[in-house]
Write a structure and sequence with these properties.
about 160 residues, alpha/beta, Nucleotidyltransferase, domain 5, five-stranded mixed sheet, about 50% helix, globular
Length: about 160
């Protein structure tokens, strides 16, 4: 099963593609779609849409794992991230790619065994699980890989 994990954000959307069955999960690639801070909101959303569409066309994943929105005190940021999530879900729906959503603590639990793990612990376990020589960077990409690994573990 080929899964794309997505860590939605406004300035940066992390993505990670893994392939896995049973107990073996391998990374196929990772990165970020970045938007320019000085660009207007519609242009930033369009850039995310175009970038994600390119990724979905390139990889043709069997499924998508999407991290749920973490509500912060900044309502404006939360609303902007929600708009990005809508673009992400639309891109998947247009290709009939099933989307599974996972809360941050579910992802941490699946990857580290603890729902309270910190970012560094999650990144290190992602590196180990995927047998990577390097730590996935930036953090958003590592989070997306963790989300994809969580999905593979939950659907086996």
């Amino acid at each position: 099963m080929l899964v794309i994990g997505v860590d939605p954000g406004y300035g940066r959307v992390g993505w990670g593609v893994v392939e896995g069955e049973a107990h073996l999960v391998v990374s196929r690639g990772w990165g970020c779609i970045e938007t320019a801070k000085e660009s207007p909101i519609p242009a930033r959303i369009l850039e995310v849409s175009r970038g994600l569409n390119r990724l979905l066309d390139e990889w043709s994943p069997d499924g998508m794992a999407l991290e749920t929105l973490y509500f912060s005190k900044n309502v404006t940021t939360a609303m902007q991230v929600a708009e990005v999530r809508g673009v992400i879900r639309l891109a998947a729906a247009e290709r009939e790619i099933p989307v599974a959503e996972y809360a941050p603590n579910q992802i941490k639990q699946a990857v580290t065994g603890s729902g309270r793990a910190d970012k560094r612990q999650v990144q290190e376990m992602v590196r180990r699980i995927l047998a990577l020589d390097v730590m996935p960077r930036p953090d958003d990409a590592a989070d997306a890989l963790a989300c994809a690994v969580c999905h593979v573990h939950r659907t086996r």
